[in-house]
Amino acid sequence: MPELVTLTTRHIGTQTQHPTGGANDDHQLLPPQPLPAGSCGSLLRQAINTGTFKTRAAPMADFGLKALSLSELKKMQKDIAKAISTYQDRQTADARAKVEAFARELGYSLAELVGTEKKIARAPKPAKYRHPENPALTWSGRGRKPQWFVEALAAGKMAEVMAIC
């Protein structure tokens, strides 16, 4: 069971050392502080020490958003969207790697277990009908009738006349 430790951080943009000796390039450890009034009572911010890394939970920081211009806010929005996307991509790749490794342990490939067989693309069917005046216009006889074919039938032409031998 992971031990629960109190961890409070502040964004400073410089590299700092953690008590475990690891470096983190954008957070500094601070003494525990109570959360702001109305957020969760007076509970301290808590993190789970898994032995590998520490996760943290803290209230949203005040970035002075009201002082930023519209272009700065839009740039920040793009940066955040990109960060979210890359985070999701990393998580998906990590999950896929774990599942593939587990499948290999069992002696299978992921494709065998999931059944992700590729569909075989069918070759286009040869043309059965050709426009009487414009030989570049053809129809295979499948799907919806082209307008030139409908018009030729309405004009009294037989489908056999337009058939390609």
H-E order = EEEEEEEHHEEHH
What is the domain tally? 3
Terminal CA distance reads 78 Å
**What is the percent of helical residues?**
25-40%
What does this structure look like?
The protein has 165 residues and is of the alpha+beta class. The chain has 3 domains: 3-56, no CATH class; 65-114; 129-162. Helices cover 32% and strands 16% of the residues. It has 4 helices and 9 strands; from the N terminus they run E-E-E-E-E-E-E-H-H-E-E-H-H. The chain has helices spanning 70-105, 110-114, 147-154, 159-162; strands spanning 3-6, 8-11, 16-17, 23-24, 27-30, 46-49, 54-56, 129-130, 138-139. It has a 3-stranded antiparallel sheet, with no helix packed on it. The longest helix has 36 residues, at 70-105. The protein is elongated, with a radius of gyration of 32 Å.
List keywords for this structure.
165 residues, alpha+beta, three-stranded antiparallel sheet, two-stranded antiparallel ribbon, 4 helices, 9 strands
In short:
With 165 residues, this protein is an alpha+beta fold. It has helices at 70-105, 110-114, 147-154, 159-162; strands at residues 3-6, 8-11, 16-17, 23-24, 27-30, 46-49, 54-56, 129-130, 138-139.
Which helices and strands appear, and what pairs or packs with what?
Blueprint: E1 3-6, E2 8-11, E3 16-17, E4 23-24, E5 27-30, E6 46-49, E7 54-56, H1 70-105, H2 110-114, E8 129-130, E9 138-139, H3 147-154, H4 159-162
Antiparallel strand pairs: 1-6, 2-5, 3-4, 6-7, 8-9
